[in-house]
Amino acid sequence: MKGRKLLMIPGPIEFEPEVLQAMGQATTSHIAPKFIEVFGNSLELMREVWQSPSGQPFIVAGTGTLAMDMAAANLIEHGDNALVISSGYFGHRFKDILDRYGANTTILEAPIGEVVSLDAIENELRSKPYKVLTLTHVDTSTGILIDPKPIADLAKKYHVLSILDGVCSVAGEELKQDEWGIDVVLTASQKAIGVPPGLALLMASQKAMGVFKNRKTPVGNYYADWNNWLPIMQAYEERRPSYFGTPAVNLIVALETSLKIICTEGMDKRIQRHQNLAKAFRAGIAALKLRILPKTTHLAAHTLSAVYYPKGIDGAALRAKITEKNVILAGGLLAGIKSSYFRIGHMGSVSSNDLMAVLHALECALLALGHPIASGKSLQAFQNELLNTVPLNPVTN
Ligand code: PMP
Questions:
Q1: Domain 266-387: which topology?
Q2: CB within 8 A of 291, min separation 6: which ones?
Q3: Phi–psi pair at 127, nearest 5 degrees
Q4: Per-residue pLDDT at 394
Q5: 140 Cα nearest atom in ligand 1
Q6: 231-278 pLDDT, tens digit each
Q7: Is residue 185 classed exposed, middle or buried when 0-12, 13-18 and 19+ CB atoms within 10 A define those classes?
Q8: Tell me: the pLDDT tens digits for 67-78?
Q9: 17-265 has which fold?
Q10: Contact yes or no for 346/304 (Cβ under 8 A)
Q11: Is residue 88 within 8 Å of residue 142, measured between CB atoms?
Q12: Are 228 and 208 in contact (CB under 8 A)?
């Protein structure tokens, strides 16, 4: 559509037309048999996406922050030790939330662009008895991807519950919740799950549910209390009507549609698509001699890229020029360096066409601001990388 703006921020993202159409259907009762079926299917499909056949899924109206809040409210009791492994802005948010429920929270942070070492994590776990640790799979403020598996192994070794903030990773990065033994994996609808903002999604292991059931004190948050929501999730899964708080009917109808699209693509193929496109996009960025925040490419997420503005270029002016080309990107988020970088989301329904449009707009904007680049360079590098990555597979988007 001429003049239509392409939304390439790290959430909300561009949504599949089928998802938006599903959302636009007439709202039904939350206990209509058809809706009960949709809710039940969505819970079952979540297990496939999270790769957690044994997990307890929760679908609640709210945002990703509510999902974080819910994990903390239900698993923390006053005085518990909690360890936050942070790679940016959202690690700090988890610390704030855990503190609010009375946890003694320790935060381990790496320098910008790096990750906390496994040795540092193990030393900390050895130093005192922790109840939970949290980790951010992809921190959306820095574009840093961590490897959750070895951290989950350490959590198991030290009998600590692991909570993964997967808001910017679930359905875009490799995740095997049960196999890796992660106790809670949470996300929000508006990112790689591919549904407009408004749903908090969470999967808890049976171990986490056991710890919750053995609490000595009541949950200090009425809305987030699993005692209220667990019977509702169980009822919908058993296709029975129930009520605690009115579910976001239209969003859940959209969620079922999106989860079906995700599962039809298949998790392995979907993750591979994200990896191929991210790699090619970063080849385009490197061809323009722009630098990404992560220190090495293996720490760079496949769901978004965080890129420093080139020297001498005003960030706001660059983004305004990119918007003139009908592409919307996001500015920086991390305190201290916020104005020195920008972010591009490439998750969910993202295709090579979208990323070519981003590189085109970026090149035009740099040229308009007098930055010396050879036009077409990034597009050529993008194309070459895609051709190299998947030489025999024409379906790259
Ligand atoms: N964690 C991460 C990693 C995020 O990217 C975000 C949202 N950008 C959140 C948590 C919070 O999610 P929400 O904005 O939906 O509350």
A1: Aspartate Aminotransferase, domain 1 (3.90.1150)
A2: 307, 308
A3: -75, -25
A4: 47
A5: 5
A6: 999 999 999 999 999 999 999 999 999 999 999 999 999 999 999 999
A7: buried
A8: 999 999 999 999
A9: Aspartate Aminotransferase; domain 2 (3.40.640)
A10: yes
A11: yes
A12: no
Q: Look up residue 142 and give its amino acid.
A: T
Angle, alpha carbons 381-387-391 (nearest 5°): 160
DSSP E strands: which ranges in the chain?
A: 6-7, 56-61, 81-86, 104-109, 132-136, 138-139, 144-145, 161-165, 184-188, 199-204, 304-308, 327-328, 330-331, 341-345
**φ/ψ of residue 73, rounded to 5:** -60, -40
| Pocket probe mutation, ligand 1, options 168, 185, 186, 343, max atoms within 8 Å of Cβ | 168
* Relative orientation angle of helices 377-389 and 267-287, to the nearest 10 degrees: 150
Atom 8 in ligand 1: which residue has the minimum CA distance? 140
User: pLDDT at position 389, please?
Assistant: 83
Radius of gyration of the chain, Cα coordinates, nearest whole angstrom: 21
Q: Do domains 17-265 and 266-387 have the same CATH topology?
A: no
Ligand 1 atom closest to Cα of residue 137: 3
User: pTM here?
Assistant: 0.97
Show the tokens assigned to 198. Answer: 């408004």
Residue 390 confidence (pLDDT): 61
Tell me how crowded residue 151 is: count the other CB atoms within 10 A of its CB.
23
Under-70 pLDDT residues of the chain: 1-2, 390-397
Alpha-carbon distance 90 to 71, whole Å?
A: 15
Residue 84 Cα to ligand 1 middle (Å): 16
Q: Cα separation of 269 and 276, whole Å?
A: 10
What pLDDT is recorded for position 397?
47
Cα 152 to averaged position of ligand 1 atoms, centre (Å): 21
Pocket of ligand 1 (CB under 6 A): 11, 63-65, 90, 136, 139-140, 165, 167-168, 188
Question: Which three-class secondary structure state does DSSP give residue 270?
Answer: helix
Of 254, 192, 248, 190, nearest to 18 (Cα)?
254
SS3 109: strand
3-state secondary structure of 101: coil
Q: What is the pLDDT of residue 392?
A: 45
So where are the chain's domains? 17-265, 266-387
**Residue of 171, 192, 114, 122 whose CA lies nearest to 150:** 122
DSSP 300: B
Tokens for 396, please give them.
Answer: 């790259």
Instruction: Determine the atom of ligand 1 nearest the C-alpha atom of 141.
Output: 5
Query: Is 208 in contact with 6 (CB distance < 8 Å)?
Result: no
